[in-house]
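Dear V.,

Thank you for sending over the compound details. I've combined the ligand you provided, pyridoxal-5'-phosphate, with the protein sequence from our construct and run the structure prediction for the complex. I'm sharing the raw inputs here so there's no ambiguity about protonation or stereochemistry in the SMILES, which I know was a concern on your side last time.
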Amino acid sequence: MPRPILATIHPEALRHNLGRIRTAAPDARVWAIVKANAYGHGIERVFDALRGADGFALLDLQEAERVRALGWRGPILLLEGVFEPPDLELCSRLGLWHAVHCNEQIDWLAAHKTQVPHRVFLKMNSGMNRLGFAPERFRTAWTRLDALPQVEEISLMTHFSDADGPRGIAHQVRAFVETTRDLPGERSLSNSAASLRHAADPQVRGDWIRPGIAVYGSAPDFPEHDIGHWDLQPTMTLSSRVLAVQQLQPGDTVGYGSSFTADAPLRIGVVACGYADGYPRHCTTGTPVLVEGVRTRLVGRVSMDMLAVDLTPVPQAGFGSAVTLWGRAADGTVLPIDEVAAAGGTLSYELMCALAQRVPVVVEG
Ligand SMILES: *Cc1c(COP(=O)(O)O)cnc(C)c1O
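Below is the predicted structure of the protein with pyridoxal-5'-phosphate bound, written out as structure tokens.
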């Protein structure tokens, strides 16, 4: 009998979310971002549900090979471009489009021998200060690329640092638009937050949007908005069961460090889920959990293989009761991953990506 912990991927929710994002940015094409193994969901597990996208974007060359191996003949974009010259051979062979963010990548392209010229996305650093050419260097890079026989078409891209927050994107949009005004080529600017919040503006929408986290059923601007507001559905459920029940008396404590003390008689359930499964150890007493679909709270510290929950709101629960750590319970009740992440001082992205290897994963349906 395996441990009862399980992750379930919901293809219908992936389809729904993709459709929802399309509505937010009508007439833009959509890169489904599947980096980090599709945000921990598994590229092979999400592929079918996301094949309605116009392309797949990622950054690992092996992941690009996996998408081609699934039979995808459409566009694939390497968001960080190539890491060393031999990678360009794989791009030629598999027809991968790639970002160009630095002069070294242009040098490599200039020395690359290829029958088929490449489609590249020239990246501007419009303020994020991670990858890309600063606006004052962007046109020189464009001109260099444009002169290369190895390059077939140049698209223009940038990435926002604050699409989800109060600073916003206006300063970056301005830098991008002013610098690229008379340059030809398709544009790509928006991640999930920009696609949902700002894509009414055609300059922000561009030709290609690049949603990731919203596809995976998380609100990119939580807690300002939740998935209900954006009409998104959870695509990953982490579930387990109660494997022991303890009856506490006032003064009794729970778990390592005795961080929780009962101030009244309290029934707790011990759940087969710990930080070695990817559940964040930073979540402490009060983090929401569903037991039999009923909302309750974590108590005490999360240990490697177990955590404890308050059974007070679910008197019928006991040994073997179903527990939802995030996602959707059997009765349809949703516990957004955003709430759990916030309780642990992190983001849904990290929780999805950190789902541990030892957790079995099934695809619903
Ligand atoms: C990861 C990534 C995205 C997707 O971001 P989300 O916030 O998950 O929507 C878009 N563009 C680039 C360049 C990225 O690296």
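A first observation: The mean pLDDT is 98.

Warm regards,
I. M.
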